[in-house]
Every structure is written in C-alpha cells, then in structure tokens.
Specification:
The chain has helices spanning 11-18, 27-44, 56-63, 67-79, 101-122, 125-144, 147-165, 168-177, 179-188, 194-210, 214-230, 232-238; strands at 53-54, 83-86, 90-93, 96-97, 243-244. By secondary structure, the chain is mainly α. Strand 2 (83-86) and strand 3 (90-93) form a beta hairpin.
C-alpha cells in the first residue's frame, strides 16, 4: 500500500507565506508603503508642522511594527524633501523652500493650461456634470468651513480636468512636482476671501469647458494658478516660521 502523502509544509515555505500578503508583497514592504502614504498626507496637509520633530520609535509603536519599515518610509519622504534627517539631532519636518515654489508653480501652470484647453475641446456632457458636481462639493465645504474637504475637492477638480483632457498621467506628474506648493497652498486657504476666490476661478474654468472654449479655458486656468505666485510673500509674512529662505 503506497505511503500517504504528508500534509506538512516545508518550514521555508511556511515562513515565506507568513511574511507575504496575498498580493505577493512582503509584509515589511506593505507596512512601509502604508506608513509612507499616511505620513505624506500628514506632512502635506500640515498636520505635522514644518520644524516639528519626528520620532521613529513612536511611529513604529503606533503601527505595531519594527523600526525598519518606518525608516524606509522616512528615507523616501526625505528624498522628496518633506523630512530632514540630522544624524546627531533627529528627524524634522522640513520647512517650505521659498526658492523652489515659483518654478514648481510655473511648471504646474504650463501643464494645466494644456489640460484645460484639451478638456474644453473634448469634454462630454457626463464629464461636464462630473466637474459641476465637484465644484458644488467645494461650495458646500466652503459653507461648512471645512477646509480639508474643500482641498480634497480642489485636487479632484484638477485631476478630473486632466482626465477629461485625456491625459490623466499629467496630473500624476504634477503631484510629484507640487508637493511643497501643496503645503504652501494649505496656508493660503484660511486667508480671508481665498476660498471664495478659488471657487470663482474654478467656475470660470468650468464655464469655458462647458462652452468648449479652448482658449478661454486655458486663460482661466492660467489666471487661477497665477494667483499662487502672487500670494507667496504675503503667506510667508503671516507664517514665517514655516518657510526656509535658503537658496
């Protein structure tokens, strides 16, 4: 009688399976990705303020992981310029580099003028309705004094314009370029009249897209993003401790 096949699994296989999720990604890598994403949101939204100290041990404890995935996430955020690592002093949230803002805004403006123009040429009725819905969400957030929801809807509006244009990848690239601009923009929202002004500027972009006025949409987006350049000095004056003036 043939021997019954053993149901025991090789120890190496067990260890590999235990350290891997169904997606095939190691647990440490998955933890690092999650910590990176969460920390990035906290940094860009200014939940963690420029100049604030970051504790590897505290983050590791809050996620129930070792310091390895935390360190991996921190190094990635340091490469993006969001964190600064000083071997003898610690890890700190980087201040917003004033010198880098104009170039990032100009790059964003050039790309988004293009997506607005193409969106006006290509927008379907359902896509226009989607943009109208996002703009209405911004109005509601403004009325409720909810700046976080307003900002999320703002991002969605610009991402949707790129999607309507047929080039969603442009928005993904812009997100990489504008990381410090986003932190700066968060500081502009509490300024008197700023949110109302953004809504009016988005309305101008949408009206041109609805009319399939490509040049009008381009000009409206240009005007909208140009204001970011104009507000740098005033915003820096209000929150000087958040900015780094080094060239």
């Amino acid at each position: 009688m043939p021997a019954r096949a053993s149901k025991k699994t090789d120890p190496t296989v067990r260890r590999t399976a235990a350290g891997t999720r169904r997606s095939g990604r190691p647990r440490a890598a998955t933890a690092a990705s999650r910590i990176y994403s969460d920390l990035r949101v906290e940094l860009v939204s200014l939940q963690r303020r420029p100049g604030e100290a970051i504790s590897e041990a505290q983050i590791a404890h809050s996620y129930g992981v070792s310091r390895t995935p935390v360190r991996e996430a921190i190094l990635k955020l340091s490469d993006e310029g969001l964190l600064e690592i000083y071997p003898q002093s610690g890890i700190f949230v980087s201040r917003i580099p004033v010198a880098a803002l104009p170039e990032a805004i100009i790059i964003r403006k050039a790309l988004e003028e293009t997506t607005a123009r193409l969106a006006a040429e290509r927008a379907t009725s359902s896509q226009i309705l989607a943009l109208q819905s996002i703009l209405e969400r911004q109005r509601e957030a403004s009325a409720a004094g909810d700046s976080d929801t307003f900002h999320q809807a703002d991002e969605m509006f610009h991402a949707t314009v790129a999607d309507v244009a047929g080039y969603p990848g442009i928005w993904k690239y812009i997100q990489q370029v504008k990381v410090h601009v986003d932190r700066y923009r968060r500081l502009t929202l509490p300024q008197r009249g700023r949110i109302a002004k953004v809504i009016v500027e988005h309305e101008a972009v949408l009206i041109a897209i609805e009319a399939h006025d490509a040049e009008g949409a381009r000009r409206a987006m240009e005007t909208h993003l140009e204001s970011l350049l104009e507000n740098i000095s005033a915003t820096q004056h209000i929150n000087p401790e958040y900015f780094d003036e080094r060239p």
